[in-house]
Amino acid sequence: MTEASATTDTRHLKALAVLVAGAAIIGVGPILVRLADAGPAAVGFWRVAFALPLLALMVRKTDGGPGAAPRLALLAGLAFALDLAFWHYGIAFTSVANATVLTNLTPVAVTAVAWVVFKQRPRNLFVAAVALAVGGAWLMAVGRGANAPGANPPLGDAFSLMTAVWYALYFLAISAARQTVGATRIMFWSGVASAPLLLIAALLLGEDLLPASAGGWAACVALGLMHVAGQGSIAWALGRLPAATASVVVLVQPVVAAILGWMLFAEALGPIQALGAGVALGGVVLAQMASRPKT
Length: 295
Fold this sequence. Notes:
The structure is a single chain. By secondary structure, this protein is mostly helical. The chain is about 80% helix and about 0% strand. It has helices at about 5-25, 30-35, 40-65, 70-95, 95-105, 105-115, 125-140, 155-175, 185-205, 215-240, 245-250, 250-265, 270-290. The chain is globular. The model has no long low-confidence stretch (mean pLDDT about 80).
């Protein structure tokens, strides 16, 4: 192994570690959404609103200020607003595990678009890894069947599945923007774009805008911090990893969410769901083996 290839491999592993950490942090999100006693879109608004002041400070330090709004960052903000609104309604109607798993069924779309639009052709082993990870996620989602907890599991699952489309668009927009723009600047401007859209959605849907308790406010503040740490880590890593690779790695997120849902809300994992979690993680590991730079 040459010195150059060793350096490339080290950078790849560092980006991978940051991406896994970011996905694990985001896995806490569904729990906080459940604890934030406000409307689903309103909770999304507060998440972004509490994140923006910190992002503004960070972008001033890293880039000297926000600068002009990159178009791709604004597109990411639109996609993120749709992502949060649909996802939070999914969490309200179905189990934490189902909502998070179905939301993360984006690798197929991301891989296909990255291949066709960005000419990031995947290896055969990577395609097999995507199929394995998505198959595991599907097992987690259907494992409880009609016994899945939630007010309206079929509707919640449908909302969560639609979220996967918006999450894929968000991923691809961030990945493209990261070729020329820093992660913090992208996060700031995508937040500026998504916050008013989520607020308008909450008002039009007649939601309770303000959390009804101190615990609800605390959950919203925690969501803001989680957004900066989790999505910020993912955005940073997307500047160093292919979008298709990153979309598979973040499938660790539903595994984290499912475990927390079991611990906090007694949403027990059945044997099929547990098998699905293992298969999904196996697909993630295989995807990383397939996407490592050639030496």
